[in-house]
């Protein structure tokens, strides 16, 4: 039955931004609101899946029937994604994880400097890449937020992170990407299928993505 497309499936989704602390009052982050990831979680639950949602700090209510785990930093998201990864059938990383964090953090508020302040940053772990290395039966789907050469960069991420599919999000398109209620994406799978999804609500985009993922799972049972 199509309304229970994901019955019996275990789905893990990451959503939202991460926050990388500098001191007790300051952090680095990005524009993600969690809307895309929460739409995926809500839709997966509605389609009959057992859903775990690992979320960065966002202002959204937990969708009905979804098990939610809250995290703040990229390091915490990494830990929780690894905890919940085993045994999942479908894993989708829509979170906008910080690529860099401050090398040094301060327990007391940093006082104003006389002139410029340089904050040295170091790379965070690429969670998706780690999950790609540890893949068992999971159908692993990444997102790619891009501003230019979107298909080329998306393809590179699909291959380098050992993904089964990638959802490419050109964040320069009006009404798509960060914070909007709508989105427009390109779905690319590892067998070279490329589907352009027209602008629609994030809920409808989520529904279409699960239909495409489900087709892939049928074509290539794991
Ligand atoms: O939350 P909204 O406001 O609704 O916005 C939705 C969105 C624009 C955030 C979403 O649609 C989106 O594109 N998410 C991916 C954002 C992103 O960080 O893309 P990226 O190209 O930098 O990363 C590629 C992939 O690697 C992503 O799946 C990301 O989760 C993952 N990654 C990145 C860095 C890192 N350290 N660990 C990761 O796992």
UniProtKB/TrEMBL annotation:
Residues in DNA/pantothenate metabolism flavoprotein C-terminal domain copies: 6-215
Query: Has the keyword Oxidoreductase been applied to this entry?
Result: no
Renumbered residue ranges of the record's region Phosphopantothenate--cysteine ligase: 11-222
* Pathway stated in the Swiss-Prot or TrEMBL entry: Cofactor biosynthesis; coenzyme A biosynthesis; CoA from (R)-pantothenate: step 2/5; Cofactor biosynthesis; coenzyme A biosynthesis; CoA from (R)-pantothenate: step 3/5
Cofactor mode of binding and number, as noted = Binds 1 FMN per subunit.
Work out whether the entry's keyword set contains Protein transport: no
For activity, the cofactor(s) needed are: Mg(2+); FMN
Give the enzyme's EC designation.
4.1.1.36, 6.3.2.5
Tell me the GO molecular function terms.
phosphopantothenate--cysteine ligase activity; phosphopantothenoylcysteine decarboxylase activity
> Keywords for this entry?
Decarboxylase, Flavoprotein, FMN, Ligase, Lyase, Magnesium, Metal-binding, Multifunctional enzyme
Reactions catalysed:
(R)-4'-phosphopantothenate + L-cysteine + CTP = N-[(R)-4-phosphopantothenoyl]-L-cysteine + CMP + diphosphate + H(+); N-[(R)-4-phosphopantothenoyl]-L-cysteine + H(+) = (R)-4'-phosphopantetheine + CO2
User: So where does CTP get bound?
Assistant: 99, 109, 143, 157, 161
Q: Which family does it belong to?
A: In the N-terminal section; belongs to the HFCD (homo-oligomeric flavin containing Cys decarboxylase) superfamily.
> What is the recorded function of this protein according to its Swiss-Prot or TrEMBL entry?
Catalyzes two steps in the biosynthesis of coenzyme A. In the first step cysteine is conjugated to 4'-phosphopantothenate to form 4-phosphopantothenoylcysteine, in the latter compound is decarboxylated to form 4'-phosphopantotheine. Catalyzes two sequential steps in the biosynthesis of coenzyme A. In the first step cysteine is conjugated to 4'-phosphopantothenate to form 4-phosphopantothenoylcysteine. In the second step the latter compound is decarboxylated to form 4'-phosphopantotheine.
- This protein's name: Coenzyme A biosynthesis bifunctional protein CoaBC
Q: List the top taxonomic levels of the source.
A: Bacteria, Bacillati, Bacillota, Bacilli, Bacillales
Instruction: Specify first residue, last residue and whole-protein length for the fragment.
Output: 180 to 401 of 401
